[in-house]
Amino acid sequence: MKKFLFDLFPLILFFLAFRFADIYVATGTAMAAVVLQILWLRLTGRPIEPMHWINLTVIVVFGGATLLFHDDTFIKWKPTVLYWLFAAILTGARLFTGRNLMRRLMGDKIDLPDRAWNRLNDSWAGFFVASGALNLYVAFSGRFTEAQWVNFKVFGLMILLLLFVVAQSLWLGRHIQAEPAAHRTEGPDGEPRA
Questions:
Q1: Which of 7, 54, 62, 92 is the most buried (most CB within 10 A)?
Q2: Where do the coiled-coil regions begin and end (predicted)?
Q3: d(Cα 163, Cα 76) in Å, to the nearest integer?
Q4: How far apart are CA 24 and CA 132, in angstroms?
Q5: First and final CA of the chain: distance in angstroms?
Q6: Long-range contacts: 71-77, Cβ < 8 Å, 24+?
């Protein structure tokens, strides 16, 4: 839970800064928060995950362009670029290197057949593509205000992610393989024991 809140830190500060100021102050606040995250991880000796570096790069580029040109178009593109980048990484790794990154990430926790791993990887890539497209619709369709887009970015995308994770968990439950016999031991009564 601590890690989850730590990762949400820039998003929470973005939301609060927007509520008390405007999109430009919120953008600068989010940029500073991501830089502070990286510094904190480095100073405490904790691992800096690739996702942190990707997020830092995207927020500095798109947030920097927002502040430099005083144009909120760039920061509104940021979630879409980040999500589509994740989708491209998941899909590209599987298609061009044969590596399933979801298996690499979760393979030591659950055992799935190859086909299920591929579906899991592809469904996450699809989720990221759809979320990125939805962000563009809310940001640029003209049907929503800037405040509504901020609420969607902070809460809507988070709710969609949580719903997707729940759906994935239910789906995974049907596909998890039993523990291989080589990993099981028998108790004194001859019954299998984990």
A1: 62
A2: none
A3: 23
A4: 21
A5: 27
A6: 72/23, 72/24, 72/27, 72/146, 75/23, 75/27, 76/135, 76/139, 76/140, 76/149, 77/136, 77/139
Number of neighbouring beta carbons within 10 Å of residue 176: 12
- Report residue 190: phi and psi, to 5°: 85, 0
Nearest to 114 by CA among 175, 169, 170: 175
- Residue 119 is encoded by which pair of tokens? 């579906």
In this predicted structure, which of 15-19, 99-103, 190-194 has the lowest mean pLDDT? Answer: 190-194
Of the two residues 4 and 93, the one the predictor is more confident about is 93
**Residue 26: which residues within 8 A CB-CB, separation 6 or more?**
14, 15, 17, 18, 150
Beta strands in the chain (DSSP E): 185-186, 192-193
CA distance 147 to 1: 28
Distance CA 9, CA 154 (A): 11
Residue indicated by tokens 């719903």: 163
How is residue 182 annotated by DSSP? Answer: G
pLDDT band at residue 179 using 50, 70 and 90 as cut-offs: low
By the 8 A CB rule, do 111 and 176 touch?
yes
- Whether residue 164 contacts residue 127, with contact meaning beta carbons closer than 8 Å, is answered with yes
pLDDT at residue 183 tops 50: no
